[in-house]
Every structure is written in structure tokens, then in C-alpha cells.
Write a structure and sequence with these properties.
Length: 182
Amino acid sequence: MVRGLLWVLAAVLLGGIVHLSTVLAMPQAAKQDAYSRLAQLTPVNAMAPLAATKAGAEIMPFMDPAFAAAVCRYDLSDGPLKLIAPVSQAYTSVTFYTRRSVAFYAINDRAAGRRTIELDLMTAAQHAQVPEDEEVTAADRLIIESPTTMGLIVLRALAPEPGLMPMARQALAAATCRIQSQ
């Protein structure tokens, strides 16, 4: 009896280990992650609007049809990136993801406190090379350090009513994402 319980416990433990390792390995093994899907649709270091969300045909998982979305697929190997995004009337958010879809920073229009979200994205090595200017404070220049050289920036603008979707798309169309000139 005890021997049978030990076998059952060992089988459950082994099954748990296999299940956990499979779940943890799936993001690295997935061929059609968000970055791969968007690589076919978006240019590098440029903002690209995403098509309206239709049920069952989302480009990225969990897309809300009440939001207009735009994506900048970035590559920081040529230098730091400058993002300028005007805020919409209702709500605007900016989220930064690594190449493996790990979110590492997010900001919205209320946290920015301005009519434009403006920030610099760079690697830690590029940030170390930025000269310190005594007259420029952290509030004047928002610098985000990316843990990887490649990733995604996703802008979302809320359209609280379906008739306001063109205004949300217009706000995102004015956003820019490009390599900073030295």
C-alpha cells in the first residue's frame, strides 16, 4: 500500500515538473509570437498603425476593439530611439516590450502630464554615453533603458464610442518613432 502511494506521488511529481517546464519553455519555442507576426507588417524604427480588430483575426492576442493601436518595431543597434506621441482626447498608453514579449515599461497620458508623450529609448551602454547636462532635469527628458536591442513599442488610444475611432486613429497617426540623429 505504501509502495503504491510512493509510485503515485512520484508520478504526480514528475508530471508536475514536465508540465511546469513545458509552460516555461513555450514562449521561447513559439514561432508566431507578436514580434514575428508584426515583423511581416511593420518597418523597423517607424510607427505603423494596426488594422481594426475583428473577432478571431487579431494580430496580437487580447486586442480590445475600443482601442486604436500602432506599433513601432525598434532596433537600437544604430543608436537611441526618439518617440513622440500626441495624446488622444480620451486615453493614450505606450507600452515597451522586449523581443520575447516581456513588458519592461509603460506610461499613459495621465502619468506624462503633457499633451505629448516624448521619450528616448536606449540600451544601458548608450545611456552611459549620454553626456550629463546640468540644465536638463529628469522631468525634461525621459530616458528609458531597454534590456534588449530589439523589441516593440505599442501605442493605444481609446475611442470611448465607435464614432470617435477616427480621432483616436488620427492621434496615433501623428506619432513618430525614429533613430535620433547625433
